[in-house]
Amino acid sequence: MRWLFVPMRLVVAGILAAMPGGIACADIVVLKSGGRIVGEPVVDPQAAGDVVTLQTLPGVIVSVPQSEIAEHIRQKPAELEYEKIRSRYPDTVEGQWELAEWCRERNLPQQREVHLRRILELDPDNVRVRAILGYTKVNGEWKTREEVMREQGYVLYKGRWMLPQEVQLLEEKEMRQASERDWLQRIRRMVARLDSDPAAVEQLQNIREAVAVKALLKVLSEERRDPVRLLLVQAISRIDSPEAKRAMAVLAVEDPVEEIRLACLKSLADSKFPESVPYFIGRLRDRNNVIVNRAAAALKAMGDKTAVPALIDALVTTHRIVLPPAQSGSIGATFSRSSDGRSATGLSSGGNQPRVIRRQVPNRDVLEALAELTGQNFGYEPDVWKRWYAQERHRAALDSTRSQ
């Protein structure tokens, strides 16, 4: 038998047998016209075109054209059973609680909440249900956590309660990260075209956006060609931002290529970045003697005399040196290299384990920086330097007192 519902243009396509093993699931088809059809999905060999076919009642098959469907909802077996049994429970606190528990045991959270909220309509002060639904009593009034948080000025953002200011900072951070990822792709493309497209060099030279610094540093760390690395450093040096200047200071002491270190120092000296001198002074205490001397050279380039006391302290530094194992039962001189490339000597006897000794190392670049900044040269004699510096400070204090 076939039925034709003209207003909905629905075709009842005939009578088909039910699926083997009973109903496994049911679908809900919400029509654009506002109607709803509930039934078991079946395959209708007679149906033509793009349709959804449901068995709504024994012997009744409905084929619905996709063009008439607003939403197609597939139900679980538990949802089907729920539709059958829900009317059996009385509309009382006890009946609704039993039905809510039935839903909980079958993992139907939305249906469970419907009945829990019905309990509150019947018994507004039901403490157990209030707790389940997340209510707390505030000044004698039941409120959800959401209501409490919103009253305190919080907003729900990506599943977390946050202050509006925190949301703004987080959104700004996300926007910055997205922009940094975009710059990373763009700069990588520029570098890839350097050998074939002269315009790529100009594009690198024209970068002025502070948000590009992180991407430039990332590409710099990946690049192995020194000329290209120098181009990237020059691009960073043209960006007027604290992040760019801090990066230049780090490169000025840590980059292995002297030409790049010098380019960084020139940029910092020209810009007079205030954080440079304190940073280089801090690096005078580095455990690596090479870094100590590079930091001294950087302070010499900056020309800031406030670095003199720290340079005096770094004139001779102590470093750990590993001596190779001596031949068993022998005593002899061993030669090793300190971290700045200078040779060190020591005596070792017996054993086959390397030994670690501590050795004082005079730092040539530190002495040169002191000589440049003070016009004096007392060699590698920290005590002499300290006496001279104390006298200079005393003389300056006297001059200041007389001029008042």
Task: Summarize the model shown.
The chain has helices spanning 77-85, 93-105, 109-122, 127-132, 145-151, 164-192, 198-205, 213-222, 226-237, 242-254, 258-271, 276-283, 289-302, 308-313, 364-374, 382-402, and strands at 3-5, 10-14, 26-31, 36-41, 51-57, 60-65, 69-75, 135-138, 141-144, 155-157, 160-162, 316-323, 331-337, 343-349, 355-362.
Architecture overview:
The structure is a single chain. With 404 residues, this protein is α+β, with helices and mostly antiparallel strands. 48% of the residues lie in helices and 21% in strands. Among the domains are: 3-75, SH3 type barrels (Roll); 81-152, Alpha Horseshoe (Serine Threonine Protein Phosphatase 5, Tetratricopeptide repeat); 317-362, no CATH class. The radius of gyration is 40 Å and the shape is elongated.
